[in-house]
Amino acid sequence: MRRTPQRQLTVLHVVQPVDGGVARVVTDLVRAQAGAGLRPVVACPPGSPLALGAAAAGAEVHGWAATRSPGPGLAGEVAAARRIVRASRPHVVHAHSAK
Hints:
This protein is α/β, with parallel strands linked by helices and about 100 residues long. It has one domain (about 20-95). Helices cover about 40% and strands about 20% of the residues. The protein has helices spanning about 20-35, 50-55, 75-90, and strands spanning about 10-15, 40-45, 60-65, 90-95. The chain has a 4-stranded parallel beta sheet, with helices on both faces. The longest helix has 16 residues, at about 20-35. It is globular and about 40 Å long. The N and C termini lie far apart (about 45 Å).
């Protein structure tokens, strides 16, 4: 039987708030996780301060165009999040949003 190398532990952070305390915590978590040899992935609104900060801290960033409040776009946001989960194949999903 052939053995395959284990996949790098991947943590997906799904985040809508892109500034303030949430963004700071996520950026700090990404920096620590990347430093520990994990693969941090962040799904957040593209072009946001969080997207830029997370990438600089070592995250693979996926644009997730979510709004803060639930509304008519919620089904599309969920579908987009599902695509990101499938693409990144995380071991852990850490949601930092009310959604």
